[in-house]
Amino acid sequence: SIVAAESTVAVAGPGGAAAATGPLRLDAKDKRVVIVPFTTAPAPGAYKVTWHMKTPDGHKTDGDFAFTVK
Predict the structure, then answer these.
(1) Cα(35)–Cα(41) distance, integer angstroms
(2) By the 8 A CB rule, do 63 and 51 touch?
(3) What is the maximum alpha-carbon separation in the chain?
(4) pTM of whole model > 0.70?
(5) Which of 37, 48, 60, 62 has the most CB atoms within 10 Å of its CB?
(6) What is the DSSP string of 5-29?
(7) What is the pLDDT of residues 4-63, one digit of tens each?
(8) Rounded Cα gap, residues 49 and 43, in angstroms
């Protein structure tokens, strides 16, 4: 599982500006899955997600991925 209060997800939208997202929360069925909703429909373009997670036993992991909205 993941410690939501000590984990972060940042979404950079087209041009590198921060995309408007709601708070990070854990999936109700799988506490290894995080959900970070957009607060408004994302504009077309390239996005980059950067994430940092912490587990209850103190392990930390991070990464990033990209996607495109058409």
Answers:
(1) 16
(2) yes
(3) 40
(4) yes
(5) 48
(6) GG-EEEEE-GGGPBPPB---EE-SS
(7) 999 999 999 999 999 999 999 999 999 999 999 999 999 999 999 999 999 999 999 999
(8) 15
